[in-house]
Each structure stands twice: as C-alpha cells, then as structure tokens.
Fold each of these.
Amino acid sequence: MAKKSTAKVNKSQSIRDYLAKKKNARPAEIVEALGKQGIVVSAQFVSTIKTGLKRGKGKPSRGAGGKRKAGGRSGRKQASAGHVTVAQLLQVRTLAERMGGVSQLRAALDALEQLGLS
C-alpha cells in the first residue's frame, strides 16, 4: 500500500512569511490572504504570532509547567508596592492588640529598622 502524500503546512511559518512581505499587515488581512492559499487560521492566532515576533529573542516566557521564582507565595495575593490590602490591615491590627497598642508596635518597628531587619 502506498503512503499518501500529506504535506502539512506550517501555519505559523506561513504567517511569518506573509509578515516578512507586508510588515504592517493586519490580522484580518493575513487571515484572508492565507485563506485564499487554503490555509485556515484565526485572527487571534495571527495576533499571537505577531506578538511573538515583536517580543523577539528576549527573555522567554515561563510557559506551562515552568518553575516559580524563589521566595514567591503560592495562593496569596501580594500587595503592590505602597498598597496595603484589607487582610494585611486586619493582621496589623491583631498584632498591635497583642503588643499592647499601636505605640508599642511602632516602637518594635523602629527597633527592627535600627537593627537593619526591615
């Protein structure tokens, strides 16, 4: 039995080739042009390939199954720099109550800062 010739087209490469000819082509234009060649792609897929080309060979994305950075907290939202969450405020209030008030907590924080531990 003879094998059928199944030459598969690399859709990503087809998009890159089209973009090499027309750098400012919009995704819808690329979808239409490749459709005329019998290559079916979505505008979202074209946008993904275009974004990958813009990113270049810089820092690769972590991708699925990638490792987390050391020291990261899993499952917890971290506050942005300068922003405090309600949960953090409640924890500070509880700590202040356990230490005998806000003035005691401030004194402890000042001591930490002088020791260089903050």
Amino acid sequence: MTSSIASVTHTQPAAPVQPSASRTTTQTKPKPAKAATDTVQLSAAAQAQSAAIKELRETSNQTAQEAHSGDLQAQRLLAKENAAQSANK
C-alpha cells in the first residue's frame, strides 16, 4: 500500500549563533568551592599532654638553648640531667 504526502513545508536553516563580545566579557569564571574546615578545642589535660610529648622529643641542645634564654622548665630539666649524670659517675 502506498500513501501520498499531501503537503510539504520547507524551512530555512537557522543561522549559527555566535557569542557577542559583550557577553564574553561579562561572564565570570566559576569560583572554586572553599574547603570545609573543622575546628578542634583541646582540653587543658590534652594540652598539657601535648606539651609534655613535645618536651620529651626535644634534644638536649634545644633544652640547653631554651634554658639559656630563660625557660624555667628547661632550666629545671637541665639541673635534673646534670644531677643524674653526677650521681652515675
């Protein structure tokens, strides 16, 4: 069976769209998203423990430098170390 087409409408192809100069200058670049930051508050006990760990990792030269600059804790530690060395001799 055949069917005939009664009418055909021809349309003109659309002209390609070109961006105008004003559009390209007003467009803004997308800003990168800010990284989420978390804040942590340490308790007094945790802060003291952290300080104690830092002191344990300190070399004797660092302790001596701090003692000479007036750090009382470093001065006490040097006195303890000197007393221990004197007792072991």
Amino acid sequence: MAPSKILANGCPELPIGPQAVGTPLGILADAAYGTGEAPLANGDRIALYTDGLYEIINPSGEVFGPERLKISLARHRKRPGADLLQAVLKGSCRYAGDAVFSDDICAVIVAYMEENTLPLV
C-alpha cells in the first residue's frame, strides 16, 4: 500500500518518501521492507491504499492517476475517515464512467490524535 499524509490544515503529500513503493505485503514470505518516518501533528491522517484506487481508466483511455487522487484527498480532507474514502471512491467511479476497476482496491485512513483530544470519527 502506498501512503499519503493528509495534513489537517493543508494538502496531502503524495507519496511519503521512497518507502512508498516496493513489494506488496503478503506476496513473498521472505520479502524485506524499508522503514520511514513522517512527522505528524494532531489531526493529521495517513491514507494507505493500493494502486487499484488510481489506476482506473476512463472511456477515453486516460488513467485517473496519483495526481487526481491527491486532488480528491485534498478536496475531501475535512471529512471523517469513512466519508473521505467514500467520496474519493465515488469520484474515481464518476471519472471512469462505465469502465470497471481492473485491479483490487484496498484503502485505510489512520488518524493521529494527541492525548486528550476528540477523535476524528
């Protein structure tokens, strides 16, 4: 899964460092994975997703792509996690028209909340 950092008060950073690409999880039993760090402030979120989320192709043959995904994440960043994912998925489906996703899609939103703050639902 490729990570994107969604800033509480700004645009997503896509992707987070060179560790964002590599062997998919669970494919190889002995695969080695790198690690990385990204500073988070209260309310920042990390979007984890597979490439199927942005590889949808519209009827004109154009790929939705990482840049449109970044714009969609930015547009909906203030929504709660489940609503954000739903809005991004609906946007990519609208872009695709009658086309279908040719790859699997998995996406998760993780919120960073400091102690004594209300969680993002």
